[in-house]
């Protein structure tokens, strides 16, 4: 142990005699040349202050035999984002110090910043590996999965929910089918992780599935009969939560397309149209935790002569917005937009279009929100002014603007010739936010005279200052026989993830469900068969991807 110069010390009882004035004025030494005896209790924190650092000033090293300094250590930091821990299955990590062959584990319960409990000796090499975590999502260490303690930055772990696809159809024998698929889109090729058969519970003319993600659970909605709407919750792994429940039922009606949206306040709004002696568009709010009805089914609009079809719904702020087609008994067509919250709905906008004496059909609305913007996309069937259909146009409206914008017009898409066939033509859209500056729209070309959707396309749309302006639509990509395998699809649905967008398609002729991976350059990133050829047939398939 190093000696003190010109000093006397007693460790037990602790009397310390120090000559000189350097370093100890805080101990009230009076005079530079006067020796001063200081009595301090051995438990005093002042002793800790003096002796806690083995290399503190002239005291040298009092805590390490031989006078060596302890090795410096450094933390290994972790950043976790995108993780959904709804099944109480933590994300488990293992840190392996390859320099001294030790390991330690860390369980992460939620997104945030963390460090392994024991720091590593600076300069040691290490690696981090992923263990178990809640399924239904894909997690990876995107940066700094290995490195050197003290020099390598934070390890970044990013998780992303896998794709969920609901598909409903009828077999050749007329039996309704409802399927729920899980797809790991981060794998190459894509891997179907779930293939669930859901009990329909009846014989509707169309199963018409709807699928909504809440951030913790899915809500699957379908028609178990033309008179009844059912629901079922699933967790992120597509494991059923509770039992199926009835959302709405009414004798003597035929329910049309069903749409739903999640409200973080703790509820869903479900919107549909129905036909009977009195036709109507309605909504029902239900609990996001139990599925129980909140209040009763509320009529948005009703009539004994007008018909209502193709409803969609979104949430903007704390207000719901819905849009659907209206057709009068005299053949006048319009697209109606309403807002509602808990009571009566309020008319927001009525869209109409004419060509000569023809009232053009406006149909298949698709609503989308981002921040304060509400986008409405819909199909407009065009005529020559004398009742002859000659094309279809994809239209868009930003915040229910007075004059909608034209996205794209098709006069003769693949397999659909309205001029020569005298059939109605529609472009049925599905919209998703690709990134801060782009929307992606997928749409199906529907030939009413043939009764089938004959082509699936995607169209990139540029957002400028939060709005869609003239000329915002890019170059479309058309999916034809070479990608799908036949020319008879029956509806598509679109969703986007961090780095890619995905389109699900039901193919009636090929008896399959497909997944497309489009890009914004007119290329098709990939085509996967989610559900292979079905020997029982797939008639009138409808897919919804989340």
From TrEMBL:
PROSITE patterns: PROKAR_LIPOPROTEIN. This is Lipoprotein.
